[in-house]
Amino acid sequence: MSELMESLPRGARTWTCQDCGWIYAEAIGMAADGIPPGTPWDELPASWTCPECGAHKEAFVMVQP
Ligand SMILES: [Zn+2]
Fold first, then answer.
1. Rounded CA gap, 44 and 57, in Å?
2. How many whole angstroms from 51 Cα to the centroid of ligand 1?
3. Can you say how many angstroms the Cα of residue 2 is from the centroid of all Cα atoms in its chain?
């Protein structure tokens, strides 16, 4: 478990990029892309891509607790 994961509220959903391992946490959002904390994965725009490797949303999988 990373420090990021440990710092999240219980029950917060996170998603990880299968290509590079970058993690999107719904509780944190993605400020650099104008996505506020608490934004559900489903509400990210379809055009959103991984900030690390540019993979599309399809490349991400939910992190199981
Ligand atoms: Zn990636």
1. 9
2. 7
3. 14
